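Subject: Scaffold protein Nfu/NifU N-terminal domain-containing protein

B.,
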Amino acid sequence: MRGLIPSRSLRALAGVSSKPPLNPVCRAACIRHVHQSSVRIAPLTSSQSRRRPVLRPAQQQPATSITRATRSIYIQTQPTPNASALKFLPNHPVLPEGFPSTFLEYNSPRSTVAAPHPSPLAARLLDVDGVSSVFYGPDFITVTKAEDVNWAHIKPEIFALITEAITSGEALVNTVEKSTSAEDGQGGLGEDSLAPNDEDDEVVAMIKELLETRIRPAIQEDGGDIEYRGFENGMVNLKLRGACRTCDSSTVTLKNGIESMLMHYIEEVKGVNQVLDEEEEIAMQEFARFEEKLRQQKGPDAAPSTVGKGTLDFVE
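Prediction pasted inline below.
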Protein backbone atom coordinates (compact mmCIF):
# COMPACT_ATOMS: atom_id res chain seq x y z
CA MET A 1 0.00 0.00 0.00
CA ARG A 2 0.98 3.61 -0.57
CA GLY A 3 2.40 5.21 2.54
CA LEU A 4 3.60 1.97 3.97
CA ILE A 5 7.31 1.43 4.45
CA PRO A 6 8.82 -1.96 3.93
CA SER A 7 9.65 -3.88 7.07
CA ARG A 8 13.37 -3.84 6.15
CA SER A 9 13.31 0.00 6.10
CA LEU A 10 11.50 0.09 9.43
CA ARG A 11 14.11 -2.12 10.95
CA ALA A 12 16.86 0.16 9.59
CA LEU A 13 15.23 3.31 11.03
CA ALA A 14 14.73 1.59 14.36
CA GLY A 15 18.39 0.64 14.43
CA VAL A 16 17.60 -3.06 14.15
CA SER A 17 19.83 -4.94 11.74
CA SER A 18 18.64 -7.87 9.73
CA LYS A 19 21.93 -9.60 10.44
CA PRO A 20 22.30 -11.84 13.46
CA PRO A 21 23.41 -10.02 16.67
CA LEU A 22 27.08 -9.81 17.46
CA ASN A 23 28.79 -11.48 20.33
CA PRO A 24 28.73 -9.02 23.37
CA VAL A 25 32.50 -8.96 23.52
CA CYS A 26 32.85 -8.16 19.84
CA ARG A 27 30.07 -5.59 20.04
CA ALA A 28 31.88 -3.68 22.87
CA ALA A 29 35.12 -3.72 20.89
CA CYS A 30 33.39 -2.33 17.83
CA ILE A 31 31.76 0.46 19.82
CA ARG A 32 35.14 1.49 21.26
CA HIS A 33 36.69 1.41 17.79
CA VAL A 34 33.96 3.60 16.32
CA HIS A 35 34.14 6.04 19.21
CA GLN A 36 37.92 6.36 18.97
CA SER A 37 37.93 6.77 15.24
CA SER A 38 35.09 9.30 14.97
CA VAL A 39 35.84 11.56 17.96
CA ARG A 40 39.36 12.89 18.40
CA ILE A 41 40.14 15.28 21.27
CA ALA A 42 43.12 17.52 20.79
CA PRO A 43 45.63 17.14 23.62
CA LEU A 44 46.15 20.08 25.99
CA THR A 45 49.51 21.73 25.50
CA SER A 46 51.32 24.77 26.84
CA SER A 47 51.96 26.20 23.41
CA GLN A 48 52.86 29.86 23.34
CA SER A 49 50.69 30.34 20.27
CA ARG A 50 47.51 30.05 22.29
CA ARG A 51 45.48 33.23 22.02
CA ARG A 52 45.03 35.26 25.18
CA PRO A 53 42.49 37.99 25.89
CA VAL A 54 43.81 41.47 25.19
CA LEU A 55 42.29 44.73 26.40
CA ARG A 56 41.07 46.99 23.67
CA PRO A 57 42.58 50.50 23.61
CA ALA A 58 39.36 51.99 24.96
CA GLN A 59 39.42 49.58 27.91
CA GLN A 60 43.06 50.04 28.84
CA GLN A 61 43.86 52.17 31.91
CA PRO A 62 46.84 54.46 32.39
CA ALA A 63 49.90 52.73 33.79
CA THR A 64 50.06 55.18 36.69
CA SER A 65 46.63 54.26 37.99
CA ILE A 66 47.38 50.53 37.72
CA THR A 67 50.65 50.96 39.61
CA ARG A 68 48.97 53.01 42.30
CA ALA A 69 46.24 50.43 42.75
CA THR A 70 48.74 47.61 43.29
CA ARG A 71 51.21 49.52 45.47
CA SER A 72 51.41 48.36 49.06
CA ILE A 73 53.45 49.21 52.14
CA TYR A 74 54.25 47.49 55.38
CA ILE A 75 54.00 49.52 58.59
CA GLN A 76 55.73 48.28 61.71
CA THR A 77 54.89 49.38 65.23
CA GLN A 78 57.28 49.71 68.12
CA PRO A 79 56.37 50.26 71.76
CA THR A 80 57.94 53.12 73.70
CA PRO A 81 58.66 53.58 77.40
CA ASN A 82 55.54 55.73 77.43
CA ALA A 83 52.50 53.43 77.51
CA SER A 84 50.40 56.19 75.94
CA ALA A 85 52.70 56.59 72.91
CA LEU A 86 53.23 54.20 70.01
CA LYS A 87 55.86 54.46 67.29
CA PHE A 88 54.84 53.71 63.67
CA LEU A 89 57.58 52.87 61.12
CA PRO A 90 56.16 53.11 57.56
CA ASN A 91 59.49 52.39 55.82
CA HIS A 92 59.06 55.72 54.05
CA PRO A 93 60.56 59.19 54.67
CA VAL A 94 58.29 61.26 56.88
CA LEU A 95 59.96 64.67 57.00
CA PRO A 96 60.66 66.36 53.64
CA GLU A 97 64.15 66.19 52.20
CA GLY A 98 66.25 69.08 53.46
CA PHE A 99 63.92 69.81 56.41
CA PRO A 100 65.88 72.07 58.83
CA SER A 101 64.90 70.18 61.98
CA THR A 102 65.01 66.50 62.92
CA PHE A 103 61.40 66.44 64.12
CA LEU A 104 58.02 68.14 63.90
CA GLU A 105 55.35 67.92 66.57
CA TYR A 106 51.62 68.75 66.54
CA ASN A 107 49.91 69.09 69.90
CA SER A 108 46.57 70.53 68.80
CA PRO A 109 44.26 70.29 65.76
CA ARG A 110 44.78 73.98 64.96
CA SER A 111 48.53 73.50 64.74
CA THR A 112 48.11 71.00 61.88
CA VAL A 113 46.71 73.68 59.56
CA ALA A 114 48.87 76.59 60.73
CA ALA A 115 51.97 78.00 59.07
CA PRO A 116 54.72 77.27 58.44
CA HIS A 117 54.33 73.46 58.26
CA PRO A 118 50.71 72.27 58.01
CA SER A 119 50.14 68.54 57.71
CA PRO A 120 46.97 66.93 56.31
CA LEU A 121 47.90 63.56 57.78
CA ALA A 122 48.49 64.99 61.26
CA ALA A 123 45.11 66.73 61.01
CA ARG A 124 43.36 63.44 60.27
CA LEU A 125 45.26 61.62 63.01
CA LEU A 126 44.37 64.22 65.61
CA ASP A 127 40.76 63.94 64.46
CA VAL A 128 40.73 60.35 65.73
CA ASP A 129 38.93 60.26 69.05
CA GLY A 130 41.52 59.75 71.78
CA VAL A 131 44.67 60.94 69.93
CA SER A 132 46.32 63.85 71.77
CA SER A 133 49.51 64.56 69.76
CA VAL A 134 51.39 63.54 66.60
CA PHE A 135 55.17 63.55 66.34
CA TYR A 136 57.11 63.26 63.07
CA GLY A 137 60.66 61.94 63.11
CA PRO A 138 62.89 61.51 60.05
CA ASP A 139 61.39 58.10 59.24
CA PHE A 140 58.81 57.40 61.94
CA ILE A 141 55.55 58.73 63.37
CA THR A 142 54.81 58.69 67.09
CA VAL A 143 51.16 58.94 68.09
CA THR A 144 50.24 59.77 71.69
CA LYS A 145 46.80 58.95 73.05
CA ALA A 146 44.81 59.87 76.12
CA GLU A 147 45.40 57.61 79.11
CA ASP A 148 41.79 56.37 79.23
CA VAL A 149 41.79 55.22 75.58
CA ASN A 150 42.62 51.65 74.56
CA TRP A 151 45.08 51.17 71.68
CA ALA A 152 42.96 48.32 70.31
CA HIS A 153 40.17 50.82 69.58
CA ILE A 154 42.20 53.40 67.64
CA LYS A 155 45.21 51.51 66.27
CA PRO A 156 43.42 50.12 63.14
CA GLU A 157 42.22 53.58 62.12
CA ILE A 158 45.71 55.05 62.60
CA PHE A 159 47.12 52.26 60.42
CA ALA A 160 44.57 53.00 57.70
CA LEU A 161 45.20 56.78 57.71
CA ILE A 162 49.00 56.42 57.47
CA THR A 163 48.73 53.79 54.73
CA GLU A 164 46.29 55.87 52.69
CA ALA A 165 48.44 59.00 52.96
CA ILE A 166 51.63 57.26 51.84
CA THR A 167 50.13 55.17 49.03
CA SER A 168 48.31 58.20 47.61
CA GLY A 169 51.61 60.04 47.27
CA GLU A 170 50.48 63.16 49.12
CA ALA A 171 53.01 65.29 50.98
CA LEU A 172 52.95 64.47 54.68
CA VAL A 173 54.31 67.93 55.55
CA ASN A 174 53.71 71.13 53.57
CA THR A 175 55.60 74.40 53.82
CA VAL A 176 53.74 77.69 53.51
CA GLU A 177 54.70 81.30 54.12
CA LYS A 178 54.55 82.28 57.74
CA SER A 179 52.56 85.49 58.05
CA THR A 180 51.99 85.48 61.81
CA SER A 181 53.66 84.04 64.86
CA ALA A 182 53.97 80.30 65.12
CA GLU A 183 50.84 78.49 66.16
CA ASP A 184 50.92 77.17 69.70
CA GLY A 185 51.33 73.43 69.75
CA GLN A 186 53.56 73.12 66.68
CA GLY A 187 57.07 72.16 67.74
CA GLY A 188 60.25 71.65 65.79
CA LEU A 189 60.31 74.96 63.95
CA GLY A 190 63.50 76.59 62.82
CA GLU A 191 66.95 75.04 62.64
CA ASP A 192 68.11 72.03 64.58
CA SER A 193 69.05 73.16 68.08
CA LEU A 194 71.97 70.70 68.15
CA ALA A 195 73.46 71.92 64.89
CA PRO A 196 76.99 73.40 65.24
CA ASN A 197 77.18 77.18 65.48
CA ASP A 198 80.22 79.37 64.98
CA GLU A 199 79.18 81.44 68.00
CA ASP A 200 79.25 78.46 70.37
CA ASP A 201 82.14 78.31 72.80
CA GLU A 202 84.10 75.12 73.42
CA VAL A 203 81.91 73.83 76.25
CA VAL A 204 78.63 74.38 74.36
CA ALA A 205 80.10 72.72 71.27
CA MET A 206 81.06 69.69 73.36
CA ILE A 207 77.59 69.55 74.92
CA LYS A 208 75.90 69.63 71.52
CA GLU A 209 78.21 67.01 70.09
CA LEU A 210 77.59 64.64 72.98
CA LEU A 211 73.82 65.17 72.77
CA GLU A 212 73.85 64.63 69.00
CA THR A 213 76.01 61.51 68.89
CA ARG A 214 75.22 59.66 72.14
CA ILE A 215 71.88 60.82 73.48
CA ARG A 216 69.66 61.76 70.52
CA PRO A 217 69.83 58.30 68.83
CA ALA A 218 68.61 56.60 72.02
CA ILE A 219 65.75 59.07 72.45
CA GLN A 220 64.73 58.76 68.81
CA GLU A 221 64.67 55.00 69.26
CA ASP A 222 62.08 55.59 71.98
CA GLY A 223 59.92 57.67 69.61
CA GLY A 224 61.03 61.15 70.65
CA ASP A 225 63.74 63.78 70.30
CA ILE A 226 65.61 66.38 72.35
CA GLU A 227 66.08 70.13 72.11
CA TYR A 228 68.98 72.15 73.46
CA ARG A 229 67.74 75.33 75.18
CA GLY A 230 70.97 76.83 76.53
CA PHE A 231 73.78 76.50 79.07
CA GLU A 232 73.82 78.82 82.09
CA ASN A 233 75.73 78.63 85.37
CA GLY A 234 76.72 75.03 84.78
CA MET A 235 73.15 73.91 84.06
CA VAL A 236 72.13 72.53 80.66
CA ASN A 237 68.54 73.38 79.68
CA LEU A 238 66.89 70.66 77.61
CA LYS A 239 63.41 69.85 76.38
CA LEU A 240 62.18 66.37 75.54
CA ARG A 241 59.81 65.86 72.61
CA GLY A 242 57.50 63.17 71.26
CA ALA A 243 56.91 60.10 73.40
CA CYS A 244 59.46 61.33 75.96
CA ARG A 245 57.63 64.61 76.50
CA THR A 246 54.66 63.03 78.28
CA CYS A 247 56.44 59.98 79.63
CA ASP A 248 56.19 59.46 83.38
CA SER A 249 59.89 58.57 83.52
CA SER A 250 61.09 61.66 81.63
CA THR A 251 62.63 63.16 84.76
CA VAL A 252 64.41 59.88 85.50
CA THR A 253 65.73 59.86 81.93
CA LEU A 254 67.09 63.38 82.33
CA LYS A 255 68.66 62.86 85.74
CA ASN A 256 69.92 59.28 85.61
CA GLY A 257 70.77 59.17 81.93
CA ILE A 258 71.49 62.50 80.28
CA GLU A 259 72.74 64.40 83.31
CA SER A 260 75.07 61.59 84.40
CA MET A 261 76.60 61.30 80.94
CA LEU A 262 77.12 65.04 80.47
CA MET A 263 78.67 65.46 83.92
CA HIS A 264 80.94 62.46 83.34
CA TYR A 265 82.43 63.74 80.07
CA ILE A 266 82.22 67.53 80.60
CA GLU A 267 83.39 68.76 84.00
CA GLU A 268 81.82 72.21 83.49
CA VAL A 269 78.32 70.68 83.53
CA LYS A 270 76.79 70.68 87.01
CA GLY A 271 73.30 69.47 86.15
CA VAL A 272 70.39 69.37 83.71
CA ASN A 273 67.11 71.28 83.78
CA GLN A 274 63.97 70.16 81.97
CA VAL A 275 62.32 73.06 80.16
CA LEU A 276 58.52 72.96 80.12
CA ASP A 277 56.06 74.96 78.07
CA GLU A 278 53.36 76.94 79.83
CA GLU A 279 50.65 74.34 79.26
CA GLU A 280 53.02 71.59 80.42
CA GLU A 281 53.76 73.47 83.65
CA ILE A 282 50.04 73.83 84.31
CA ALA A 283 49.50 70.12 83.65
CA MET A 284 52.42 69.28 85.96
CA GLN A 285 50.97 71.41 88.74
CA GLU A 286 47.56 69.81 88.37
CA PHE A 287 49.13 66.38 88.42
CA ALA A 288 51.11 67.27 91.55
CA ARG A 289 47.86 68.31 93.28
CA PHE A 290 46.26 65.04 92.27
CA GLU A 291 49.22 63.05 93.64
CA GLU A 292 49.08 64.96 96.93
CA LYS A 293 45.37 64.27 97.25
CA LEU A 294 45.99 60.62 96.48
CA ARG A 295 48.75 60.50 99.09
CA GLN A 296 46.41 61.87 101.75
CA GLN A 297 43.73 59.32 100.90
CA LYS A 298 46.08 56.32 100.84
CA GLY A 299 48.31 57.38 103.69
CA PRO A 300 52.10 57.50 103.99
CA ASP A 301 52.44 53.82 103.06
CA ALA A 302 50.74 54.28 99.67
CA ALA A 303 52.16 52.28 96.80
CA PRO A 304 53.72 54.40 94.03
CA SER A 305 51.41 55.00 91.07
CA THR A 306 53.86 56.60 88.65
CA VAL A 307 57.48 57.68 88.46
CA GLY A 308 59.02 61.07 87.94
CA LYS A 309 59.23 64.40 89.66
CA GLY A 310 56.22 65.32 91.73
CA THR A 311 55.07 61.72 92.06
CA LEU A 312 54.85 59.43 95.06
CA ASP A 313 58.11 57.60 94.45
CA PHE A 314 60.32 60.51 93.47
CA VAL A 315 63.17 61.43 95.82
CA GLU A 316 65.25 64.55 95.41
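The beta strands are 76-79, 85-89, 104-106, 131-136, 141-145, 186-187, 224-232, 235-242, 271-274.

T.
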